[in-house]
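User: I'm putting together notes for a lab meeting next week and I want to include a structural view of one of the chains we've been expressing. I don't have a solved structure, so I'd like a prediction I can at least talk through. The sequence is below, exactly as it appears in our construct file.
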Amino acid sequence: MFAAERRQLILEMVRANGAVSLRELARVVQTSEVTVRRDVRALEAEGLLDRRHGGAVLPGGFTRESGFPQKSHLATAEKTAIADLAANFVEEGEAIVVGAGTTTQELARRLARVPGLTVVTNSLLVAQALAHANRVEVVMTGGTLRGSNYALVGSGAEQSLQGLRVSRAFLSGSGLTAERGLSTSNMLSASVDRALVQAAAEVVVLADHTKLGTDTMFQTVPTDVITRLVTDEPPVHDDRAHTELQALADQGVQIAVAGATGSPGGDEVPARRQQRALPGPRRGQVPGGAPGLRSAAAVLGEQGAERERARVADLRRR
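Assistant: Thanks for the context. Below is the predicted structure for the 318-residue chain, given as structure tokens.
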């Protein structure tokens, strides 16, 4: 394929999807990532697209949201690996919320095997993946159907989440940066995702490497509220994605990196300082939640009990 034909195909893919990884572009045009990177640079010089952290996006800084048909064919191996690893963080008998997205849909398919699970979701695709799971209870939010991603949004969805408390929220989005956290391109989707976050003691973000360093219009989860990021291993040459991962870890986010083969294990990117407790009511431990997240009242209660035991022992010695 000639360079002009390659570049035209690359441009058409980016225009159709909003953002495409170099890995995916190389697969479609059947050439190396080195060649694709050179083509992307040439197209960027003409102002036709922007390079962004291991991929290419529409020009203008903020990426637009792709429709479900386009998203479902992007980074499929990476999404499978992320879902395999994320499923390990779900325990039997838990109550969780799962947001909309193609990666969370993959996760839902694996959750069908977890007994006693309760899943609250605004995603028709997540609900469909769990519809025939005998030991999983699915609770749908209300709201208005947004056809582009088969999600329920609006005030009905948000109101149905009020007063809800679960152990974990699993969310995806359009972009993730250490500076701004998780973001998406749609205001209604962002608002519902924020309501899902408020219901959870822990927040787990599922995002493949092409979303690292990408910033979109509406913030959903600030970085200091993200407990854990489950992602795939960025390409070796993608220094900016690796830098973004370390920056997230430095801000207290636990990073779990899955292999593209979908292995059940994963590597942890070490944080340089201790994981921060989540703000507000999420600091308290929810039954079935992860150990280690305890409220200040619990810690103070333990300290008071220790002081009382010491006082009693001193009286007995007298």
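A couple of points you could mention at the meeting. DSSP finds eleven helices and 16 strands in the chain. Residues 68-73, 260-264, 271-304 have pLDDT under 50 and may be disordered.

User: Perfect, that's what I needed.
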